[in-house]
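Q: Can someone sanity-check these two? First one:
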Amino acid sequence: MSDNDRKSRREFLASVFAGIGVLASYSLLAGEGLMFLLPGSGKAKTRKIFAGQIDQFEPGAVRTFYDISGNEILLRRSAEGFQAFDSTCPHLGCKVRWQKEKNRFHCPCHNGVFNPDGIAISGPPGDAGQKLTSIPVEVDEKSGVIYLEVRDAKA
């Protein structure tokens, strides 16, 4: 092999590796640029908020809490465990209220009624087959603590 062949092979390999480096750099720059332009495109971040101790809730009781953004959450204890719902009616966005004596959630705007599991059973939400939005609940049986998993407030 002549020196010119070795030199041209070396120059070729140097060009290939330089090209790979430039391509990787531009790819990283393009990815960072997209993240800058579309900051909310990632998964919504959540956090847990303290809702109380298990023994503070009687079966059938519903308590109101607020998430980081001030949205109302209704936490209900049933014989099976705990359920939490966003208090916003899926029909027109009115606030639903728990009616203990009737064992139901009620929306006063159009007389929408939801069963204790948040499923609409009458009124416009029932006709549309809607339900209240569930909020994840975590119960730590060992410590007896209840947490609600809520979305972080938008910056």
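And here is the second, same format, sequence then tokens:
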Amino acid sequence: MTELTWKDVLGQEKLKPYFQEILAFVDRERAGGKVIYPPRDQVFNAFRHTRFADIRVVIIGQDPYHEPGQAHGLSFSVPDGCPFPPSLANIFRELQTEYPGYTVPVSGNLERWAAQGVFLLNSFLTVEQGKPKSHENIGWEQFTDEVIRIIGSNLTDVVYMLWGSFAQRKSRLLDPGRNLLLKAAHPSPLSAYRGFMGCGHFVKANEYLSSHGRGTVDWRL
């Protein structure tokens, strides 16, 4: 059987008026002189770096990092050479706890995870510089809800890491009987010690994937 691609499952969605209106809005903002992250050619990087049929883990962020040089289209990830934002630093601390001997990487670029089937999706795919959640109400969440719904409808035995109440909203779109839904506080310093640190999600994900014949993710970078 031919494997489904992102074009197969999202081609029609991207033709809908609301989606075209999102793109037009972002283009107008850029044309008007506002700095929008990530750069235009990186907005859909999550889809480029993880093939639809390969998805094993979904990590849902809120919106892209909003400071210069940070966002490149993958949730929680930063380009090579960029200092770790606090949430990403806490993710690496948790990995050190779960995997004794885990070495914090030099780079916070998570493309290596994405290549292994870890789909790094933000709920909103763009943001204005210095203004978190500035693109919350332009239609992105309708699109990313549909993305999650499509993954849940077509793929089984997927691990969803839902960190914080915002990401956990997406759980309503998923069947916990067909997947593993892991919920914890957000890794932000404001909430990490209310349940993210010590959550064990990375080990639990690999145990689930292994038990369902889907291999494991190498969390090293």
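A (reply): Looked at the second one. Residues 17-31 form the longest helix (15 residues). The two ends are 33 Å apart (CA to CA).
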